[in-house]
Amino acid sequence: RIAAVRRAFGDEALVCYAVKANSNLGLLRRVHQRGAGFDLVSGGELERLRAAGLPTRSAVFAGVGKESWEIEAAVAAGILFFNVESPHELPLLAAAGQRAGQRVPVALRLNPDVDAGTHAYISTAKKDNKFGVALERAGEVVAAIVANPWLRLCGYHVHLGSQLRRVEPYVQ
């Protein structure tokens, strides 16, 4: 499957495996051997990569409610970037960067207000969901990131949800 995704998006794309799906150390090593990076949502998942002896430079850290210790550990581990879910994370990320003496790379997660037709309990892209920054607020959050000397904007992230069965939400 990793090879199929890579063919679809090209050799330059970083394909990331969600560690929350299965954090078995042998599986993580095998995924890494296939050239994939990792999508983390907790400090515990970062520790799973370390326990497997895997590099963290191709890991991205997503998830709402990141704790200070998780951010500090991920900055120290040299992850690729953090997905910023809300502007409330910016001071924590900037403080971790300042303590480490380095700029923290961040990608802003946007909430496009798209109903992907998934079950209400797993919906992630509608304006009343807790995930991402509304498009109408994105400019001010980008300005705050760019103005902060300890943050570096490196991209944008959108996740319409899981178990999509139609292409229309992507088109929308």
If you had to describe this structure to a student in words, what would you say it looks like?
The chain has helices at residues 2-9, 25-33, 43-51, 68-77, 90-100, 135-147, 168-171, and strands spanning 16-18, 37-40, 59-61, 81-84, 104-111, 133-134, 151-157. The chain is built from seven helices and seven strands. Strands 1, 2, 3, 4, 5, 6 and 7 form a seven-stranded parallel β-sheet that branches. Helix 4 packs across helix 5. The chain is α/β, with parallel strands linked by helices. The longest helix has 13 residues, at 135-147.
Brief digest:
By secondary structure, this protein is α/β, with parallel strands linked by helices. 37% of the residues lie in helices and 18% in strands.
Any key phrases for this structure?
172 residues, alpha/beta, 7 strands
Radius of gyration from CA coordinates: 16 Å
Give unreliable regions as ranges: none
Question: Strand fraction band?
Answer: 15-25%
Q: Note the run of SSEs as H and E.
A: HEHEHEHEHEEHEH
Count of runs of 4 or more consecutive helical residues: 7
Question: What's the count of strands?
Answer: 7
The pLDDT mean sits at 89
Classification by helices and strands: alpha/beta
Give the overall shape: globular
How would a textbook summarize the main sheet?
Answer: 7 strands, parallel
